[in-house]
Amino acid sequence: MAALDSSSTSPVTLSPTSLSPTGPPPTPPPTSNALSKSPLESKDSSPSPVPRSACLENSLPLAVFYGPLDAKNPLLASCEREIRELLGFMKRKKALAITGQQKHEFHRLCATSLFNIWTKYAPRLPAAYYNEKLLKVGDSLCEMKEYKLALLQCYGRYLQQFTINFDENKADVNQFKTAFFPKGFGDKTAAHTFHALSSKNICKYELVCDSDVNLRLIMQVALPQEHLCWIIFNGTIYIYTICRKLMIIGQSSKALEYLLWASMCMECSVPLLSVRYLTWRATLYTAVCQCYYDCQAGIHGEAFARRALAKIDELRQLELMSSSQSQEESRRHYREATIKMAVMIFKRGVFESRRKSKSVFRPKIRVNLREAQTLPWPRTVTERLLDEMLDSTASRFLAVLETLSDSNRRTLQTGSIVTDEVEVRDVVSELFMAGKELLIMSNTGADGMLDFPQTSLLQLTVKGKNVISIDAAVKFVKLAFTYEEWSLFDSLAGQLIDFLQRQDDPESKKAEKDLILLVAIEPLINIKRNKGLVFPMENCKEGQSAQIYVKKIIFHDSCVKTSGYSEDIFHLAATLYSCVCDSPQNVQPDKEIVVDMIMFLWQKCKLGIQKINMARSDYAKFTQKISSNKWVYLLWQINEVIHCYKMEDIDIVVVAEVTLRLSEILELLGNPRRKFKKSLEIPLRKGTGDSLGISRGNTEILPILKKKPVEQLFLAYELLDKAIDGINLNCMLTALPNGSSVIDHCYAKYAQDIDGDICKPVTPNNFMMDLHLELIQAQHHVAVVLLDQLQ
After folding, report:
1. Which of 155-164, 583-592, 603-612 has the highest mean pLDDT?
2. CB-based contact 663:712 (threshold 8 Å)
3. What Pfam families does the record tag this protein with (predicted)?
4. Each residue of 273-286: pLDDT tens digit?
5. Is cis: bond before 378, omega within 30 of 0?
6. Does 553 fall in a domain?
7. First and final CA of the chain: distance in angstroms?
8. Where are the beta strands (DSSP E) in 118-254?
9. Would 296 be classed as within a structural domain?
10. Do the domain assignments include residue 177?
11. Residue 597 lies inside a defined structural domain of this protein
């Protein structure tokens, strides 16, 4: 990232002086007044260290001298005309600049002309008009993809009015507010400042993306120079770092080209072909293969892995001729690289070897997998292939994990593999059988329970150990959950939770919470109580199921004892609340699991909240109803989890809807003097299942009911304020230059006689805008009620 940062930030630090011409500019088109200056005028208007007050323009009359500041003001009209002509010239001439020299001359001329316009008019224009014009011109330049010019001559100029004496990358929120918003957010210029700051970052991002080509160009030029091999090596690190982030967010298709380039650079640099850099080469090879698999191009992933394996073997042959390094160190490097490539080959080969051949009509005899589980290892074709390709338990288990993993699938997206081929489904079942057997053979202790070392699976693989790490076992049990191998999941999760409870490190605590959450939601997903094909762990003793472990852990929490109900949906909410809200930040459960569970709970809670009758003739009865309703308790828990977790990671629509429903209840509770209207709705009868069922001896109540009315109104106001800030941030991140959103559109069907029904977007930003307005209206209403209470 350092190389990219340096190449991208260098244009930002350029002064306008660097953009001024060194000699007389070429003859411009006659239509542009801004471009028709003489060499003398160009020289006089070029940037110099003279202060703005000392410029000649200061002696000229200001805009107010010519009358009202409107479109008829001659100075404003002249400024508008020159800017309009310059932008028109840029739109017409940009496409004609083809060669590098033409592009350079075009950008030089445009930068000089725009600089001259600002220098000419800035001292004479009102500050508000000048700043607004800077932003509008910058937006127009961004639409033409002239990000460097927009950054330097528009947004950069606007932000020069602020005295910034701190590092933006290290500054906290208070320092940032003090620097850019000294008059507070209520000032009318605050919106313009936000505009300039966000646009500045967008321009910097685009410049970083453009500089990637320059990075590859630098690497290509340095490639033949052996003494510059460090540039190649560092360049591959920068590329890999960025591509890994792209792969994590599901953009492997965009990362593939750059990872291929980095791999080829490592192969073409002679100094980097040594054994010392073999581990890094193997990492790049593995990333390329993973990108191919993520893009559903497994055949290319396997082919690239075989090619990489051949390259590694070539290096091994050369190494045998000259034993420059210690044999032990070389053996370790070769082993790691070979195992990584073998796993990538196995990932596709295990399926392809079982697919039906179209030229053979005789059906293959299928093995009864239930009977095979009682036989000794190796029992299936998959297990025999693992024995042939890999030589240790750790490496075989790594191959099982990589083959079952799918980066395009989330943990809670459960179900068997989507295919019509029975053989492929059999391979998946055989992989789970093999993983379970490897765990039993390698990690079963003397007491019959599983035990794990504190070493990563890759380190164990390189050392050739016949043991499996705890992080690999946790990943395996998550895969069993995803593929709905429920018997294996329940039996193995119970033992893993028991082991993780005895560990003290943060990673173990996070893994424990992940498994607890999965166990809690399992009854809600596995409604039919299926078992799955793979048998449970043989060493799982009676009473050691995962459900029993979770109940022992969770029911120590007070929030569950207050509920008193045992339905699975509310037990899941209590479990999620305990794992998120009662845990420190360094042991929070997996973000993906938490977000998906919040979405799942809200879909259930939304229907239950709609049944509550908000209009009551008596405040006391309404309060009693709210205090004993399980859906309100669930709504409160969802809200607490959202605000204890990172709110920006959760769908802002869900955050807004939860906030609106809870603030509505808080507003009614915080206004005892409100006259409740009588409702014709039939009150909910006892026994409908909407009561918490609090025991007589338990005096705990819903936490929001413990607050005073004024405190309840304050809480509602704060929740609405956070939701409004969240929508503001979401709109800023997803807004296009023309003001529309990349994701927020309302679609309606239009009938077509030929093509049938098609969907067309209507009213952009309609839904998000309505939701935003509803939050503002609710906050205003709460504020009015709060003022009445305070008076």
Report:
1. 583-592
2. no
3. CFAP54_N
4. 889 899 999 999 99
5. yes
6. no
7. 57
8. none
9. no
10. yes
11. no
